[in-house]
Write a structure and sequence with these properties.
alpha+beta, binds coenzyme A, 9-stranded mixed β-sheet, 6 helices, about 30% strand, Aminopeptidase
């Protein structure tokens, strides 16, 4: 089975995160959420497949409707993790009390005429929305994008995914195209595909400003 890969996000803001070295294979970043809770960001390994699948199937039906793949299937989730481990994409899990509460993916090409492009996807559990978790995940994806030489970041979403559009607009992405009927949701209904993008250096600056202008406790 071949699953596509996607793109990245910006620099971690000063004072809101720290890196915990737990070995080369398992880097962990600790981030503070707006309510003071602590979340760990780490790359998934094969053993994470079931808790990641549980996260996907536990999302509201209106989010699951726009999944690109059948993420309720164990074999699909295992393949996604294997592909990331093989360097075909970058994935990050957000963990609270060992449960997955968020996920981000960065898809990129190693060569070809889109080798400067990274595409990102982000999903946050409903109970954790509005707490800056999406922003932290995107920040981690931007860091990884930068390391891989990505200079332009793209986000594609179905038109009804309005929260996604808002978070990317806030970071300086603009809508490049709206492609009619390019998404068929899980119920078989057609929607426009919204393609947004931003130069990585611009979006990184926007993310630093985002944190600087914010007045949450450790911002
Ligand atoms: C989009 C999503 C990842 C946002 O995650 P989140 O953790 O709630 O985002 P944050 O708390 O970091 O939000 C940062 C900013 O984005 C904007 N934003 C995020 N969600 C928003 C919403 N529902 N309505 C309006 N603005 C929103 C706001 O400007 C917010 O800043 P503020 O809290 O100071 O107003 C989450 O809502 C989600 O998983 N949605 C379903 C899937 C989806 O649409 N994914 C995007 C496709 S790539």
């Amino acid at each position: 089975m071949i699953l596509e890969a996607e793109p990245p996000i910006p620099n971690e803001p000063p004072g809101t995160s720290s890196r915990v070295d737990v070995g080369k294979e398992d880097p962990v970043k600790v981030e503070a959420l707006k309510d003071g809770a602590t979340v760990l960001l780490q790359e998934p390994q094969a053993a994470d497949a079931e808790r990641l699948r549980r996260f996907f199937v536990g999302l509201p039906v209106e989010d699951r409707r726009y999944f690109r793949f059948d993420l309720g299937r164990a074999d699909v989730v295992e393949t996604l993790i294997r592909q990331a481990e093989a360097g075909m994409a970058y994935r990050v899990l957000a963990l609270v009390d060992n449960e997955v509460v968020g996920h981000g993916a960065l898809y990129f090409s190693h060569d070809g005429w889109q080798r400067h492009i990274g595409e990102i996807r982000v999903l946050v559990a409903p109970d954790y929305r509005g707490l800056r978790l999406g922003t932290h995940i995107i920040g981690q994806l931007f860091e990884e994008a930068e390391k891989r030489g990505v200079t332009r970041v793209v986000a594609r979403m179905a038109e009804p995914e309005t929260a996604g559009r808002k978070i990317f607009e806030r970071l300086g992405f603009i809508v490049d195209a709206t492609l009619p009927d390019h998404v068929k949701d899980a119920d078989g209904n057609l929607h426009a595909l919204v393609v947004m993008s931003c130069a990585l250096d611009e979006v990184s600056r926007a993310m630093r400003d985002f944190y600087r202008d914010d007045n949450w406790p450790d911002g």
